[in-house]
Specification:
By secondary structure, this protein is α+β, with helices and mostly antiparallel strands. 25% of the residues lie in helices and 28% in strands. The strands form 3 sheets. The chain has a 5-stranded mixed sheet with strand order 5-2-3-6-9. Strands 1-8-7 form a 3-stranded antiparallel sheet. A two-stranded antiparallel sheet has the order 4-10. The longest helix is centred in the first third of the chain and has 9 residues, at 14-22. The two termini are 28 Å apart.
Length: 166
């Protein structure tokens, strides 16, 4: 059974280090990750008691040969054509998981849009703007960071665009 989320001062991941260094307000939520869970994002939403439209997953795609981060609600999926269009590309496909892990420095299911080893182009689904705060991975499974969508966009130099599908 998942533990209730708790507010902590630091999680010690590159994502929380980046947030702290930038002086960005955030709340850290930890929960007991179940390795058998079929969906990391839905597991996080349920464990935190947060609507799945406020919990966003971080996906890495290859757009015309360049790795690109897409941040979309866990309640939906990524529209690859819309992602390519948002960054002026022609074609997008999901990135090889090993390449995504190697480039970001995070493991699958714990990839954060923040504090990546190599800063990648980032697109945040426009639906994020409808919420005061959203949750994204804090850099490891079982750890989410809650912050304002505008802060996430500023810290990642993200474009906001409609890239999610319900």
């Amino acid at each position: 059974m998942a533990k209730k989320s708790k507010k902590q001062q630091s999680g010690g991941t590159p994502a929380t280090v980046a947030l702290t260094a930038a002086g960005t307000p955030y709340t850290l939520h930890a929960y007991e990750h179940d390795p058998a869970s079929p969906s990391y994002g839905e597991e996080a939403a349920e464990a935190l008691g947060v609507s799945p439209d406020r919990v966003f997953k971080t996906l890495v795609a290859d757009v015309d040969g360049e790795l690109t981060v897409a941040v979309v609600p866990v309640a939906g999926s990524l529209d690859l054509k819309a992602l390519a269009a948002a960054v002026g590309g022609k074609r997008a496909a999901m990135a090889d998981p090993a390449a995504a892990e190697r480039t970001t420095g995070y493991v699958r299911g714990g990839i954060s849009p923040l504090g990546q080893r190599k800063r990648l182009r980032t697109v945040v689904d426009a639906s994020a703007a409808a919420h005061a705060t959203i949750c994204v991975s804090a850099g490891r499974r079982g750890l989410e960071v809650e912050l304002a969508p505008a802060d996430l966009a500023a810290l990642t130099s993200a474009v906001m665009a409609p890239i999610g599908r319900s």
